[in-house]
Design a protein that fits this description.
The protein is of the alpha/beta class. Helices cover 47% and strands 8% of the residues. The protein has a domain of 118 residues: Fumarate Reductase Iron-sulfur Protein, Chain B, domain 2 (Orthogonal Bundle), CATH 1.10.1060. Bound molecules: iron/sulfur cluster (2 copies).
Length: 472
């Protein structure tokens, strides 16, 4: 069931004779727990699935993921995993290979969300594999690692004032509810110039917002503290504008529909930033005052419906920008979802970078922060800039924040990076061992090795990044 907001409705027949369970499950009582409501949603979707196999047929990663079985058997195995924690190898491989493209959601005529089911199948497999205590330990360890890295990498780049602007130095509730809540998620704080540009653009549009997010707000299994929910719900529009696609999928496919089942209503709706911006294109257009004369290729991920098209519309609105189609496959939610398919990720990234070089673009622009982290150091080896879409929009509007993440990553040496940031490291009192580990993790996040063999600890010498020019 792709539980969209709205009144409950009864099970209906589709033209194909199957049952649609989109919003047919009875609303739970106010006392139904999050976990039992989540289990009930999974069970309803598993019941509604006809095992037609269309979702498997359209999935772009069954080949790279080595999923070699009849599509109907693969999805039937996923239902087995959901019910027992185990299933055939091809189904386990499919669940692990999923990069959250969402093609399967479009293919299903029965209102089932296969992407959500695959996520729940991964949870069921982990539950069967590990003792609850071990699962908790791994969860806490993973959470602490993300929090440490986000904290160190962001504080190495920002002073207190900008950290406060991003909601990271105490974040008092504004007296009057803002127009929107802007939910950053946590990892965009590693590339803070992107989040700061998003805030600048909203300021220029004249909308009010409260910034929430950061390592303290990471949801586990879709569950969020009630206090966080209440803060997210506090805006005039009832809308949360989300930056991070991982958070967006987690909220819109797991958290909000499950809360709706327990409470009878959703506390808020979520809109991806790019769709918010495209929705304000008429107000944005007059602010795009500077002509840029650039050939730009967009690094595309289709996991959230409409985001690629919105980013293209926004780039086309920038005077002088010529959008170049590199004719490369668009797969997955964000580059970092390809961890289980490392060779496929390298192939996709190499092909795209080479295609951009052949096409003679001035910039390869990504929408999401994880793509920027993985791609930006290739700027050293290719004759074009690697930027975020908002850097281009910002330059046309006269807005700029230095991309210190790219500048630091291009240095390619832990000691030299730590030395570069020593003032901020001292100012924030960062522990040196943890800082060095966070820098190493930043350099290690390089799925496609640099052409000239940049090592993560070797001194290859800092090459000059070529950021978009700050406005004069
Ligand atoms: S999830 Fe939908 S598309 Fe996939 S097998 Fe079930 S009914 Fe068919
Ligand atoms: S979300 Fe994408 S990768 Fe995952 S199963 Fe669906 S189509 Fe395949």
């Amino acid at each position: 069931m792709r539980d969209k907001p709205g009144p409950a409705r009864n099970r209906a027949s589709t033209p194909h004779g199957g049952a649609v369970v989109s919003q047919d499950t009875p609303r739970g009582s106010m006392t139904e727990s999050f976990e039992s409501a989540l289990s009930a949603r999974v069970a309803a979707m598993a019941d509604a699935c006809t095992r037609c196999g269309k979702c498997v047929e359209v999935c772009p990663v069954t080949g790279p993921g080595g999923v070699n079985a009849e599509p109907s058997a693969v999805i039937a195995g996923i239902i087995d995993i959901l019910r027992t924690g185990d299933g055939p190898e091809a189904s386990r491989k499919w669940a692990n290979a999923c990069v959250l493209s969402g093609e399967c959601i479009k293919a299903c005529d029965y209102g089932v969300n296969p992407r959500f089911l695959l996520g729940m199948a991964r949870v069921a497999m982990a539950r069967r594999r590990d003792e609850p205590g071990e699962q908790r330990r791994q969860g806490v360890e993973g959470f602490r690692k993300v929090a440490r890295e986000v904290t160190h990498i962001s504080q190495m780049q920002l002073g207190d004032a900008l950290l406060a602007r991003l909601g990271q130095k105490g974040n008092p509730q504004p007296g009057t509810p803002p127009d929107f809540v802007f939910y950053t998620g946590c990892n965009v704080l590693k590339t803070p110039h992107i989040a700061l540009l998003a805030l600048d653009v909203m300021d220029a549009l004249g909308v009010t917002y409260q910034v929430l997010g950061g390592p303290g707000d990471i949801a586990t299994s879709g569950r969020l503290a009630e206090s966080t929910m209440d803060k997210l719900a506090r805006s005039k529009s009832g809308q949360v504008v989300s930056w991070c696609p991982s958070c967006h999928v987690q909220f819109t496919e797991t958290t909000l529909p499950t809360i709706e089942r327990t409470r009878g209503a959703r506390p808020f709706e979520m809109t991806p930033f790019m769709l918010f911006l495209r929705g304000n294109l008429d107000r944005l257009r007059p602010l795009l005052a500077r002509r840029l004369d650039m050939r730009v290729a967009l690094h595309r991920h289709p996991g959230i419906k409409g985001v690629v098209e919105a980013a293209e519309d926004i780039l086309r609105a920038v005077p002088g920008v010529e959008l170049i189609d590199l004719r490369q496959p668009a797969v997955g939610l964000m580059s970092n979802y390809f961890r289980a398919l490392p060779a496929y990720r390298r192939e996709l990234q190499r092909n795209e970078l080479d295609a951009a070089e052949r096409a003679g673009v001035d910039a390869l622009a990504a929408v999401y922060h994880a793509d920027h982290r993985e791609l930006c150091a290739h700027e050293r080896d290719y004759p074009f800039r690697i930027v975020n879409v908002l850097e281009i929009v910002g330059q046309s509007m006269g807005l700029h924040h230095d991309d210190d993440f790219k500048r630091l990553k291009l240095i390619q040496d832990v000691d030299a990076i730590a030395a570069d940031c020593q003032d901020l490291i001292a100012q924030h009192g960062l522990d040196m061992t943890a800082t060095r580990a966070a820098i190493q993790a930043m350099l290690d996040e390089q799925p496609l090795p640099l052409r000239s063999g940049g090592g993560s600890t070797s001194s290859t010498g800092p090459s000059s990044p070529t950021p978009l020019a700050p406005p004069r």
